Amino acid sequence: MRRTPLQSNPPSSHRTTRRILVVLLAGALALVLAACGAKQDTFTATSSKSFSIMLDWFPNADHAPLYEAIAQGDFRTVGLAVNPIVPSETEEPLKLLAAGKVDMAISYEPQLLLARDQGLKLVSIAALVQRPLTSIIALPSQHVRSVADLKGKSVGTAGIGYQAAELRTALGGAGVDPTSVREINVGFNLVPAMLSGKVAATLGGFWNYEAIQLQRMHKHPVVIPVDQAGVPTYDELVLVVREDEAHTRGADLRAFIQALTRGVQQAAADPKGAASLIKAANPDAEEALQVASIEQTLPAMRPSEASKPFGWQDPSAWASFSRWMVAHQLLRTNPNIGALPPFTNEFLPGQGI
């Protein structure tokens, strides 16, 4: 999802509290990641092989663990010279991955399921963000406090098919006739569309990005994540590889995830330092916004079950969400039947050994 940084300053009254929360979060996250999985992978290497990963969009807080692991030498330790590549469009990563142009891509669970339905032989090997970030967002001036309040109003989306289905699901769950709501394709101009009053609300912005932008502008947005509005939960961001290489490059994939796990720990220990790495990779990023976003995103990078390792993908959640996509005619076939599953946990720490 394309997002355009806006400039504003963080409220000074929350700085002390935020520092305390960051320290507590870093400690808790380190304990969770250290304890995850009874078996642990350990890789060391004396040389590094090139490994390219295409981001889902421009470098931002979602990628903080990746840039931390690169900066701290964690990938070099396991024998990988990781090179992040920024796409020109959000549809590009999976297409280029399938064509063999990159070794891995960061994408969205819905996008991966759509790509596989179109015949691309790809598989997710880990969840980077383990629950939906996509949200319904509205400003107080529009008097939208709940999904039910959208009746008779306009809602902006980025024009993505599954977002329209998410909107219909949310409206139906709130007892609102979807025909009473006007959906407007505002592209990636979600925040400007709300600020200008073009739409009463949007669906497509992230609670860890657009919502924070508006909060920092003192707009006090109402934020309803789609999984709290009736849409089955899913992994917002996943790490995707080609199916054939999931069979032949297991050691590289395990090593990548081991290093990335360390990157999560490092980002949790020093969000400001992680934000500076994002700023270096993306000079247009507003650093204070990235700090706030990293702090809020890190908990969503942990599995809901403390016993599971970083990157865990819940089989029942994948099955439920794919059934939802089939029910909304987004997929031609049910990925849970017949074909190879769209994800695997075998490369995660302590799994598949």
Characterise the protein shown here.
It is a single chain. By secondary structure, the protein is α/β, with parallel strands linked by helices. The chain has helices at residues 15-35, 64-71, 74-77, 92-98, 109-117, 161-173, 190-195, 210-216, 243-248, 250-269, 271-281, 287-297, 315-327, and strands spanning 49-54, 80-85, 104-107, 122-129, 134-138, 154-157, 182-185, 201-206, 222-225, 237-242. The protein folds into two domains: 17-131 and 235-327, 3-Layer(aba) Sandwich (D-Maltodextrin-Binding Protein, domain 2), CATH 3.40.190.10; 134-228, Periplasmic binding protein-like II (D-Maltodextrin-Binding Protein, domain 2). It is built from 13 helices and ten strands. Strand 6 (154-157), helix 6 (161-173) and strand 7 (182-185) form a beta-alpha-beta unit. The longest helix has 21 residues, at 15-35. The radius of gyration is 20 Å and the shape is globular.
Estimated helix fraction: 25-40%
Q: How many distinct folded domains?
A: 2
Rg, rounded, reads: 20 Å
Shape: globular
Number of strands: 10
Distance between the termini: 35 Å
Number of helical segments with 4 or more residues: 13
CATH architecture label name of the largest domain: 3-Layer(aba) Sandwich
What name does the CATH topology of the largest domain carry?
D-Maltodextrin-Binding Protein, domain 2
Q: Give the helices and strands as they follow along the chain.
A: HEHHEHEHEEEHEHEHEEHHHHH
CATH superfamily of the largest domain: Periplasmic binding protein-like II
Largest sheet geometry = 5 strands, mixed
Return residue spans where pLDDT drops below 50 for at least 5 consecutive residues: 1-40
User: How much strand content do the residues show?
Assistant: 15-25%
**For the record, what CATH class of the largest domain applies?**
Alpha Beta
Helix/strand structural class: alpha/beta
